[in-house]
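Aim 2 progress update. The chain analyzed this quarter is reproduced below.
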Amino acid sequence: MIDFEVLSGDKIQQYMNANQGYKFACTLLACGDVRGMNVEIGEDEIVDVKGFVHAHMNNSTWYETTATLSKTAIINSTCVCVGGKIKHLKCKHIGALLLALMILKKPPAVVPKQFRRPNMDRYIGMSPSLRRAVDADLTWEELIRNFLIKPEAKRAGVAMNDKFQTASKQKKTKAKGNPATLEGMLLTDLRLYLRALKLNSSGNKKALIERIVSNRPTMPTNANEMTQLIQQQRELENQQRILKRKQPKQPKQPKQPKQPKQPKQPKQPRQAKHSTQQNQPKNSRKTQRDSTDNINNRSQKKRRTELAELNSETRRICNSSDGRRKAKPIQRSASWTK
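Predicted structure tokens:
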């Protein structure tokens, strides 16, 4: 059909300047998302191509895409999507349109590697509606044939109607106020107008309009005079703001020197709990504690020996014939065991 050198995969990828975008373009073409192509050959063998490419992120939108190319270079290309506004990159829809044109130039008998769909086998045996939604039964010959057929507004198995976007969406801008009426003026303009007349400019829009109406006899009634007065006040405030920025900052006042701290009073020596341990070092206290423990041990041994002697004497008297009934064994008290 068209024997152009510029229509090759490497040169299209180089023209797009985006490797990820080129992969998405191959996916769009393999899924049959390039439709309604119109090829016109003009003078000097300049080709104008126009077609619709399905949106990658929206299930019901087709973007109008165009491209102009010669034998040696791609002259221009446009797309109405958001990515089509970027100057140094080309969107995936433009890449898909150029790849479709490359295939129409010389349709290959076998599906190229970058346009294969290896995962379509998993839809075998599933419901017909699901297979129709993903175009599981789409063959390579049908895909090439559909390049020149315009997509339908209502596809089978899809609830929503498709939208064909032919122009890029413009950003919504705020409507400017109408200075001819007070209700149509912007709030900032009303405040500038009141400040120009040296009146109070605080409050909401309704309060400002009431203030202007109440002082109407002293104000200009012509809309042009009001607009001129607002512009003068705006320029005056801008100049004041610029002068305020240019003024040198006042030097910071030097910090007052800190008063010298009063010397801390010496701590009083800590009093000991016992008067005997007040002036004794730690080692002497430990020695005294050890000696006290030794005394307690000796007294306990002495008590045990006395108790043993007393018990033996009691047994001897009880076993004798004279004191068997008179003498009674001495009972131990709690104090002996301590």
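The radius of gyration is 52 Å. The CA atoms of residues 25 and 92 lie 5 Å apart. These observations will guide the mutagenesis experiments scheduled for the next reporting period.
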